[in-house]
Amino acid sequence: RHDVMYVSDMHNHRIIVVYLNSTISNFAIGSGRGSQPTQFISPMSIFIKNTSLYVNDAGNRRIQKWSLDGSNSTNVFYYNVSISSGFIFIDNVNNIYLSEIYNHRVLRFYPNSTGVFSIVAGTGINGSSNSQLYRPYGVFVNDIGIMYIADTYNNRIMEWLPGASNGSVIAGTGKPGVSSMELHLPTHIVDAGEYMYICEAGNKRIIRWRFNASFGVCVAACTGTSGIAPNQLYIPHDLAFDSNGSLYVSDWGKHRVQKFP
Questions:
Q1: How far is CA 160 from CA 77, 88, 182, in A?
Q2: Whole-angstrom distance, CA of residue 57 vs CA of residue 44
Q3: What pTM does this model have?
Q4: How far apart are CA 157 and CA 136, in angstroms?
């Protein structure tokens, strides 16, 4: 947001704030590992909505809301111990979507509901039918409520219409591969209007896919090999853009964030 990057530093139990193209010093949100209001245990994912930072504090099984400067932490809700939480997304009416990686579904929590949720995608049993998911990671919901899911272990991107019990495959063949028609362990997706940008952990690349197309085009880390060079990724998990269109990728396997101008 405003060319300030927020990074969920999961195993250090903190959020790192980085001012891009600025001399302002970076700082951390979170006072260490723990369950106090200013502490985290393994913050799994974050989301910026208006002037607030939402954190999936997975180890404490809660969603927190902070000011962007790291002040005023509040607990939005706690979730059940049986929920295997993953990535969060906040839509334009403040519903909170949470992917359940190991329960193979996506949940929607309602504003001011103290944890009441509905299942909006997946059956809870892993599978490859259009009603099922297999270890979903990233979720993106557009302004009219259409949901896009990185169905990671099915090697595909699913589109889910509001209220539907089935989705449809819009990228990938369902089989892991390296061709322009295939995906391998997609972990996140961003809807950028005409295109979607997909982060592939298995292929160590970022691919751009036109909506309604049957193939994509690699746009970052297109060497075909994993590594630590500036043009390579190792196990990428997430992506974001700044105001100039530069791409930032969380390279989870190498504990770094890569910038592709």
A1: 25, 16, 20
A2: 6
A3: 0.95
A4: 10
